[in-house]
């Protein structure tokens, strides 16, 4: 079946100069176009704002699982294209449920907020920090080897143990378990998360 084409004759082509002249004679159209352009810019800004909200945890003001997925895909792309070495940390609080049970969910939420602010303040702008859900978190350390990630975990463990003394009831003995996986080219995001998750549970079991 042959393709059908529509042609515009030369004398039917749009005369841009004539259109401009018509617009110059119609200030009402100019105003309408300006208003539509302004509305379009406002809509684009609103879409960008909503995209940011969709990628962030409303309570802790860090990335959520959706935002983490986007960040992890970006880190994998860097590994693919430029052989950039990065690491993924899966972090889970130890025995957090009893804190909620004993001191209430309000205090539990307060501790989580303090923890999130504490960790976020100790990461670089190139790193990514997310809440996976409940008391589970993840960190993407850009340009960091697994050994460097383990060093970061030790630093965070010490600083959390010190600062959590000021976070109120239940936070005095706050600890976490963590596992690391390397972000390598050709590996899926789910596989990277799974490996770090398994390593985290191995480390948690050693504390039992």
Radius of gyration from the alpha-carbon trace, in angstroms:
26 Å
Specify the number of helices: 7
CATH architecture label name of the largest domain: 2-Layer Sandwich
- Overall geometry: elongated
Q: Regarding CATH, which class of the largest domain?
A: Alpha Beta
Low-confidence stretches: 1-8
Distance between the termini: 73 Å
Q: State the CATH topology of the largest domain.
A: Alpha-Beta Plaits
Instruction: List the helices and strands in order.
Output: HHHEHHEEHEH
CATH homologous superfamily of the largest domain - what is it?
Reverse transcriptase/Diguanylate cyclase domain
- What is the total number of structural domains? 2
Helix content: 55-70%
Which strand-content bin applies to the residues? Answer: 5-15%
Q: Mean pLDDT score, rounded?
A: 86
Largest sheet: 4 strands, antiparallel
Q: What strand order characterises the main sheet?
A: 2-3-1-4
Secondary structure tally: strands: 4
Query: Could you say which structural class the secondary elements and strand pairing correspond to?
Result: alpha+beta
Care to describe what's here?
The structure is a single chain. The chain has 208 residues and is an alpha+beta fold. The chain has two domains: 12-54; 65-207, Reverse transcriptase/Diguanylate cyclase domain (Alpha-Beta Plaits). The chain contains seven helices and four strands, in the order αααβααββαβα. The protein has helices at residues 16-24, 27-54, 65-82, 97-103, 105-121, 146-163, 189-207, and strands at residues 86-93, 128-133, 136-141, 176-183. It has a four-stranded antiparallel β-sheet with strand order 2-3-1-4, sandwiched between helices. β2 (128-133) and β3 (136-141) form a beta hairpin. The N and C termini lie far apart (73 Å). Residues 1-8 have low confidence and may be disordered.
